[in-house]
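Re: export button greyed out
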Amino acid sequence: GAVVSQHPSWVICKSGTSVKIECRSLDFQATTMFWYRQFPKQSLMLMATSNEGSKATYEQGVEKDKFLINHASLTLSTLTVTSAHPEDSSFYICSARSRQGVIYGYTFGSGTRLTVV
Amino acid sequence: AQSVTQLDSQVPVFEEAPVELRCNYSSSVSVYLFWYVQYPNQGLQLLLKYLSGSTLVESINGFEAEFNKSQTSFHLRKPSVHISDTAEYFCAVLQGGKLIFGQGTELSVKP
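Workaround output, generated via the alternate export path:
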């Protein structure tokens, strides 16, 4: 079945530094990738949608200059948290959709636990 | 805009008992509905989905959900739960190509 690899699974960084999270579709082409943020004991909040080769579309209230998303190929999307602060600490999850779209569902990565100290 | 509401934030249940996790959606158009499960510190795994056709959908691990248009519901059920079913369960609806999630229900199975 479809597999999405996300790494790192956890990362600790100092305040003010940047962190890059990668999301790869291993056995299918992900025409669209989604990035979510999840706070403890809460639901997933969609941050942005990216289509291969085009700029990401951010949800209302998400700072596009802080959360840089790149989707340069059909198998790789990255989320870079720039100038991280403790309030950016969260669980970030990516999701990928193939051209077949909803028929095969949306496949999720295993998530990245970001802690900013 | 479409949305989903999960009515129970926590559902404690004893092992081998039946369970129902409730999900209601709001939509006046055709809907695609999903149930996902999340184990601690992991991503989401698809349990089952309703796209069209039979209103009763089943997963490989004994869960089932029934699409009820008149009640705008898509409740998840299992006749006999195991300790290993302890996890967070999310109902989701597809809107504009994006998955919109409910608040989640924490299923806690006790021995």
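Chain B touches chain A at residues 32, 34, 36, 41-46, 49, 51, 90, 94, 97-104, 106 (CB under 8 Å). The button fix ships in the next patch.
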